[in-house]
Amino acid sequence: MSIRYIDEIRDLQGKKIFIRVDFNVPLDENLNITDDTRIRAVLPTINQALDGNGIVIIASHLGRPKGERNMKYSLAPAAKRLSRLLDKDVLLALDCIGSEVDEILAKMKPGDIVMLENLRFHPGEEKNDPDFAEALAEQCDIYVNDAFAVSHRAHASVEAITRFVPVAVAGFLMKKEMNYFEKSMKNPMRPLVAILGGAKVSGKIEVVENLLNKVDKIIIGGGMAFTFLKALGYNVGKSLVEEHLVDTARIAYNKAREKGIKFYLPVDCVVADQFNPTAETKVTTVQEIPQDWMALDIGPATVTLFSEAIQNAKTIVWNGPMGVFEMDAFSRGTFAMVSAVANSYALTIVGGGDTDVAVHRAGEYAKISYISTGGGAFLELLEGKVLPGIKVLEEKGTQF
Ligand code: AMP
User: Cα 77 to chain center, whole Å?
Assistant: First the structure.
């Protein structure tokens, strides 16, 4: 089963093309967009539909209006920005279904574009409600999913809608995500190294377990390393430990050893007497973490160890910071790893909100092969799950 993409449709002329995008952009208190990466990311798909003389319908969610109309979450700023980027009028409908949308669509000509108001103003969106999905589907001839970041959610505009449309395909952003996923996890150049960090083991243990079937080396930093270190018998003071996962962590570690997968954990760390940017700090080995202190970053010896471990890698997949990088005192480990990954000779794929932020803050994003646009969706792919939004496109692809 394989997904079909928008460029495989020969005739878009005059077709109503519904494009599900992720315009969940960050806004400041005056509702100005502070980062329009998500809008720019889908321009190739929108342009493909416009250049083919389709009638383009853009649909997205923004924030969490919880099924109610709340203008704080209006897509008006996104419509305005899209209009500027396309240098073309983008009409914003007052709703995403109903008579006003029908009237707008009836008047649209090939090459026109309309943006529907926030899908999540309707409770049916997050409930994957078939009636709501059908109402959305009735507006179009062709459905395009270019919202990778929400494809792990079985929501009406992502999943159920595909049952009511004649043609369902993916856009170019989705194509990029799928291509890099294929190159990193399905068919990687080896050695394949995974780097995992972030706060907790919970939420990532399935990732670790799945990666043990794929990678040659696994590197674990961040808060999650301390549950593993505890499992190996270290006394980690007040560092973040999820007691209920200590056994699970030990099993995963042993499994890696049985399979001959190299498993790297920190050998030293930056410890602090409080969780605070002005806390007193020092570097200690993991054997010597003081009882009342907590480890909030990897130390310099660990940076060297981890950097050397990725030196011969041909593919690197990374999710999660190595420390509390939001605070300067605990950011060096993460930034040093950004630099090591960026300067490696490998195909490098980074995913997850925080890692993306760290790469941008370090100014190294241009040297990373691909930064995934999906946090949760990227993690679920690493877990080995089939995303609901992708599964339905694969099913539809066979009927193409
Ligand atoms: P996650 O969402 O699971 O990827 O976690 C990201 C968060 O993990 C960031 O906000 C970091 O501040 C936090 N983090 C990283 N290392 C540590 C650590 N050693 N202790 C506590 N929090 C950490």
Answer: 22
Average pLDDT, integer, range 149-160: 98
The residue contributing the CA closest to ligand 1 atom 13 is: 199
Asked if pLDDT for residue 394 goes beyond 70, the answer is yes
What is the number of alpha carbons within 13 Å of residue 230 lying toward its C-beta?
A: 21
- The residue written with tokens 């792990």 in the block is 152
CA distance 134 to 129: 9
Which residues are identified as catalytic? 38, 200, 353, 376
Contact predicate 34/26, CB 8 Å: yes
| CA 350 to ligand 1 center in whole angstroms | 16
What does the alpha-carbon distance between residue 272 and residue 278 come to, in Å, rounded to a whole number?
9
- Integer Cα distance of 24 and 277 in angstroms: 30
| pLDDT, position 67 | 97
Instruction: Show the domains of the chain with their CATH numbers.
Output: 6-173 (3.40.50.1260), 188-382 (3.40.50.1260)
Q: Give the model confidence (pLDDT) of 42-70 as tens digits.
A: 999 999 999 999 999 999 999 999 999 99
Ligand 1: centre distance to CA 155 (Å): 29
